[in-house]
Amino acid sequence: MVKIICFGDSLTFGYQVSREDKWHVIATTKTGISLVNRGVSGDTTVGMLKRIQKQVFDAKPDGMILMAGYNDIFFNRSWEQAAKNLAAMVDQSRAKGIQVFVAIPPPIHLPVTFKEGGELVDFEKAAVMIADYCQWLRDYTTSSQLFTLDFSAAGDWCDNDLYLDGIHQSPAGHRLMADQVIDFLEKTVIAK
């Protein structure tokens, strides 16, 4: 069975969504490809660089869906360092012969309605930086000849029902993401 590590933060982990409703579980069930969740809520690309050896390389997957960067923007107020760290993870993975699929996360949906900690982040400024970061991801994946899984293009992310809080996807948002992953995997992995 093909094994792909899903490596990222809370958008990968499936923050506050039951296991059976998470995008990677739905896609595993529909495709037969083992999508192993290695998302950690609140993680940054710095934290991911520290855990990539143990959670990805040591697992010897056939591929990795890499999605990260929003927490760097929220807490460090910069996307450039996230971009540098993501490129480092891609280079390390390629050096180990792991097929990398870079995922562009869904956009945040303003207004963000965080109950705790939301006052520490200027989400309107973050949304502008996220747009810049996502454009960098598109340019980077094109120039680096990487497969891109663009969740932001999955549908109309203006629908409130797709979010729990403006950042994290609801079960409906996870279904939308799963549909895109299934289509992506059928074209890139299963078609091989």
Structural notes for this entry:
Helix content is 45%, strand content 14%. The protein is of the alpha/beta class and 192 residues long. It has a single domain, classed as SGNH hydrolase (Rossmann fold, 3-Layer(aba) Sandwich), CATH 3.40.50. It has a five-stranded parallel sheet with strand order 2-1-3-4-5, sandwiched between helices. Strand 4 (99-104), helix 6 (123-143) and strand 5 form a beta-alpha-beta unit. This is GDSL-type esterase/lipase family protein. Pfam families: Lipase_GDSL_2.
The proportion of residues forming helix, as a percent range, comes to: 40-55%
Read across the widest sheet, the strand sequence of neighbours is 2-1-3-4-5
- The CATH architecture would be 3-Layer(aba) Sandwich
Number of helices: 7
As for the CATH topology, it is Rossmann fold
Structural class: alpha/beta
**Backbone CA Rg:** 15 Å
The residue-averaged pLDDT reads 92
- Terminus-to-terminus distance: 14 Å
Backbone shape: globular
Question: TL;DR of this structure?
Answer:
By secondary structure, the protein is of the alpha/beta class. It contains seven helices and five strands, in the order βααβαβααβαβα.
Structure characteristics:
5 strands, alpha/beta, globular, 7 helices, 192 residues, five-stranded parallel sheet, Rossmann fold
List the helices and strands and how they pair.
Layout (H helix, E strand, L loop, with lengths): L2 E6 L1 H4 L9 H9 L2 E6 L5 H11 L7 E5 L2 H7 L3 H16 L3 E6 L18 H21 L3 E4 L20 H18 L4
Helix pairs in contact: 2-7, 3-5, 5-6
